[in-house]
């Protein structure tokens, strides 16, 4: 038996080989039926295929997480297929790094839209169905930069900190109706998004940055997905409203290199 047998989950941001896909696979392996979403159909269908190949139950729904109409489409598809919703895992997110003088107000609005407004819309749309199941769980994938800003993360970290506050407020509001809400904070986690952020010379950063992590190695998507399975399970039934770090202990002082190119804790 899996620890999530009988549960139904929506997982956003699952179209790349990164945290979202790993979470969808891990939740399915633990027994949950999963609705996997994202904007890129080919990637979403690949996640669906991998879940089905492992004997799980998955359905991909194309989804712009910043669209309220798309959220309703996703929830309707979930209810039509399974008749219930137990877990909402808001993983979709974006990162944009750079020195503060190089960033624009549009950059900030872009990150607020996907990192704050999108999970708000997800929680709002899913809320009555999570409450109806009696033990609903919201997991919002945040970032260590919300607690520990890194060079180049001038606007990314604050948007994730805002998301954390939103999660804690949801936990307070959800407690009387049986909904738990937790922020999951990856530290330096090697995903496709790292390559996008660090650029073509990523290789020269990997080892120096690993030495700054207390446990001496980068995180993986599986580290995050394992934590999400635990937090979604009954083993975590008395855990809500917290920032749950999955970061190898944290990050010490940065090595001396071109710091403006680095953004910590990518979560997509």
The top level CATH class name: Alpha Beta
Distance between the termini: 30 Å
User: What would the average pLDDT be, to the nearest integer?
Assistant: 90
The global form is globular
When the domains are counted, the total is 1
Low-confidence stretches: 255-268
Protein traits:
about 270 residues; alpha/beta
Can you walk me through this structure?
- The protein is α/β, with parallel strands linked by helices.
- The chain has a single domain, classed as NAD(P)-binding Rossmann-like Domain (Rossmann fold).
- Helix content is 43%, strand content 14%.
- It has helices at 19-29, 41-53, 68-82, 105-133, 156-174, 192-198, 203-210, 221-232, and strands at 8-11, 33-38, 58-62, 87-90, 136-141, 179-186, 243-246.
- Strands 3-2-1-4-5-6-7 form a 7-stranded parallel beta sheet, sandwiched between helices.
- Helix 3 runs parallel beside helix 4 (105-133) and helix 4 packs parallel to helix 5 (156-174).
Concise synopsis of the structure shown:
The chain is α/β, with parallel strands linked by helices. The chain has helices at residues 19-29, 41-53, 68-82, 105-133, 156-174, 192-198, 203-210, 221-232; strands at 8-11, 33-38, 58-62, 87-90, 136-141, 179-186, 243-246.
């Amino acid at each position: 038996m899996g620890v999530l047998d009988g549960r139904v989950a929506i997982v956003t941001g699952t179209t790349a080989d990164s945290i979202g896909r790993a979470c969808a696979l891990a939740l399915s392996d633990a027994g949950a039926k999963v609705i996997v979403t994202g904007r890129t159909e080919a990637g979403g269908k690949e996640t669906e295929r991998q879940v089905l190949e492992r004997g799980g139950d998955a359905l991909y729904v194309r989804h712009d997480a910043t669209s309220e109409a798309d959220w309703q489409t996703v929830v309707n598809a979930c209810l039509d297929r399974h008749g219930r919703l137990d877990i909402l895992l808001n993983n979709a997110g974006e990162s944009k790094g750079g020195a503060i003088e190089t960033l624009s107000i549009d950059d900030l609005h872009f990150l607020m839209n996907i990192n704050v407004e999108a999970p708000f819309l997800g929680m709002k749309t899913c809320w009555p169905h999570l409450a109806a199941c009696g033990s609903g769980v919201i997991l919002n994938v945040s970032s260590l930069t919300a607690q520990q800003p890194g060079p180049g993360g001038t606007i990314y970290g604050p948007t994730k900190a805002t998301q954390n506050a939103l999660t804690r407020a949801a936990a307070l509001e959800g407690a009387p109706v049986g909904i738990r809400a937790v922020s999951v904070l990856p530290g330096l986690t090697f995903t496709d998004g790292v390559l996008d952020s660090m650029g073509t010379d990523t290789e020269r950063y990997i080892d120096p940055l690993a030495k700054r992590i207390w446990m001496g190695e980068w995180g993986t998507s599986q580290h995050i997905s394992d934590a999400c399975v635990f937090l979604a399970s009954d083993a975590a039934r008395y855990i809500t409203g917290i920032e749950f770090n999955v970061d190898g202990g944290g990050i010490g002082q940065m090595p001396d290199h071109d710091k403006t190119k680095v953004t910590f804790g990518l979560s997509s």
